[in-house]
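Training component of the fellowship. As part of building independent skills, the fellow (R.M.) carried out the full modelling exercise for a liganded target. The chosen ligand was heme C. The inputs are recorded below so that the supervisory panel can assess the work.
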Amino acid sequence: MGKLFEKFPDPLARLIVVVAALFALGAFAYFVLIPKPVKDVEMQWADAIKREKARPVKYAGFHVCEECHGEIQKKKQTGYHKDLSCETCHGPAKAHTENPDKVKPAIPTARTFCPQCHAFNPSRPRGFPQINPVAHNPLKPCSSCHNPHDPKPPTTPKECSACHGEIARMKAVSHHVQLECTVCHVAPQQHKVSPRSVKPSKPQVREFCGKCHGKDAKEKLAANAPKIDMGEHGEKYVCWQCHYPHSPEVEQ
Ligand code: HEC
Ligand code: HEC
Ligand code: HEC
Ligand code: HEC
Ligand code: HEC
Ligand code: HEC
Ligand code: HEC
Ligand code: HEC
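Fellow's submitted model of the complex:
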């Protein structure tokens, strides 16, 4: 090695030799030592496709079921569950479509099933129908009252609390306990049948709360209401920016 370097006294030439040697070594490693499947992306793609294709297909998809279960599909199409595919509830059913008499899909009859989507959970979108599975008609299976393929509530509820349980429970232990919901909301009867298309009103201006809380309020329930100076209190902001109207507790 020393002799080899003696042939190249110039440091620059030495550097070139070292670099060239490393380069040759690298090329040898890349082209000879590393096997082709590790380097060739297309080979890897082809392998992955082969591997995925070999897996058994479990789900039959949205449309196959109606070939034999047209009635159920027709019922589901117009109901609240129109956007759920059959296999969301019945599980993978490809094998069933190929051999319907021998292989039966699961039928989710347990009371724990529906609450996966319908149990109260504050992270669900506002207005999504939610119930408390412990308090909501306990012990009976859900499908004894709601047809899972067209889950209308069996009766139109009378109380706001049937659907707004959280708010009603909160108000019941607040200073606004004596105020009916309809003191502050004008709710058309139709809201209880199609709640998403017919909505009640909500208070819009701070003077609304002033009807009871203003210095010279005359409203029926105003007598017990603590009074504030409407001109100064809370400046120009609407009251519910600071007080949740269903539980307007003031921390002392
Ligand atoms: C080729 C026709 C066919 C297709 C396609 C088909 N089914 Fe069925 N399905 C049947 C038959 C036949 C029965 C038995 C009916 C009976 O027992 O009265 C059945 C029964 C069922 C049952 C009841 C099982 C039980 O234990 O009673 C469910 C649930 C079901 N099918 C779901 C599905 C779903 C979900 C799909 C779509 C992924 C589907 N089926 C596609 C023919 C079909
Ligand atoms: C929200 C969940 C859910 C969806 C979505 C759903 N099912 Fe069902 N299905 C059930 C439940 C729960 C039962 C059992 C009903 C009972 O106990 O009476 C059932 C029962 C059935 C039965 C047994 C016979 C009957 O009519 O009760 C068949 C067949 C069936 N479903 C097919 C389908 C098909 C086809 C689809 C799609 C068009 C579908 N289901 C969508 C939950 C669902
Ligand atoms: C995968 C989630 C999912 C499952 C599981 C599910 N649902 Fe639903 N459910 C929905 C969706 C989505 C709606 C429609 C909500 C809307 O219209 O905004 C709905 C609507 C409803 C409604 C209508 C409520 C109203 O506003 O009047 C009832 C009742 C209902 N489901 C009962 C059931 C029952 C009973 C089961 C079990 C057999 C069940 N759901 C299983 C997602 C689900
Ligand atoms: C004894 C009959 C009965 C049973 C069992 C039952 N429900 Fe209900 N459900 C009702 C009635 C009645 C309503 C209408 C509201 C009210 O009066 O409580 C309703 C309303 C609902 C709503 C609509 C709430 C809203 O905010 O729009 C959902 C969701 C619901 N039920 C899901 C379920 C689920 C899930 C189960 C099973 C864990 C179940 N129900 C069991 C009778 C029943
Ligand atoms: C059948 C169930 C049901 C009943 C009964 C019901 N509501 Fe509702 N309500 C809903 C649903 C679902 C929404 C959510 C609509 C949305 O956000 O898309 C809603 C929304 C509202 C809103 C908000 C409207 C908005 O623009 O944000 C108010 C206020 C309201 N309800 C008040 C009431 C009052 C007061 C009662 C009793 C007189 C009542 N509701 C009875 C289901 C119901
Ligand atoms: C003191 C007046 C008052 C009473 C009583 C009242 N609300 Fe409200 N409610 C409001 C105001 C104000 C808003 C608007 C809040 C906002 O925009 O942030 C509201 C908003 C709502 C909303 C929209 C969602 C939310 O939480 O902001 C619903 C649903 C609702 N109220 C239902 C009810 C029900 C059900 C009752 C009876 C149990 C009730 N309210 C009683 C004043 C009231
Ligand atoms: C119909 C009359 C009435 C209306 C309208 C009304 N309130 Fe009240 N409010 C009362 C009464 C009565 C009390 C006191 C109840 C008690 O403590 O005995 C009260 C108490 C309060 C308290 C005091 C809570 C505490 O900790 O002392 C606040 C804050 C409040 N309301 C805010 C509001 C807001 C915000 C609005 C408008 C969305 C509103 N109120 C609309 C009657 C009303
Ligand atoms: C910027 C926030 C804010 C706004 C907006 C606001 N408040 Fe208050 N409010 C408070 C605070 C903080 C307290 C407790 C300290 C105090 O008494 O000033 C309070 C206290 C109250 C009390 C209890 C007074 C007492 O003597 O017990 C009432 C009633 C009240 N507010 C009603 C309203 C009404 C009605 C509006 C709308 C016209 C409103 N607030 C707007 C922050 C606000």
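The panel noted the following from the submitted structure. The pocket of heme C (ligand 1) is lined by residues 60, 64-65, 67-69, 86-87, 90, 93, 96-97, 100-101, 104-105, 107 (CB under 6 Å). The chain has a mean pLDDT of 90.
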